[in-house]
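1st attempt posting a full record on here, be nice pls
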Amino acid sequence: MYHVLLAVDETESRAVAQANAIIDLSEAKADVRVTLLHSFTDNPSGASAPQVTGVRRAKDALEAAKIETDIVEASGNPADTILDVAEDRNVNCICVGGRKRSPAGKALFGSVAQSVILTAKRPVLVAGEGQR
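the predicted structure (as tokens):
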């Protein structure tokens, strides 16, 4: 079984695009398992990851495609958290969301995505915000 860590933030369109990128992997329905991760940097209301819209929408898309999912929440620096959870869960791949950038900024990803790409010891899949 191929295990993907899907790191999502609050952005609904990006979370759905990331889920769709995983759904589009060959043989995803039969052999892929996804751990959804949301890392809180500030959570004064005490929300849990399943209450985050991006997490719910990604989970719904994956489950509609019959892909096994579970949800993990953490707090702290998002890039460090993603890398720690990937290591702890021994995932095969990390999926992060890319952001739209100006022409000058296209060479750079968001700071979290860029940090994960440059530091990860496993493949990183970057999905944009485009929707089907």
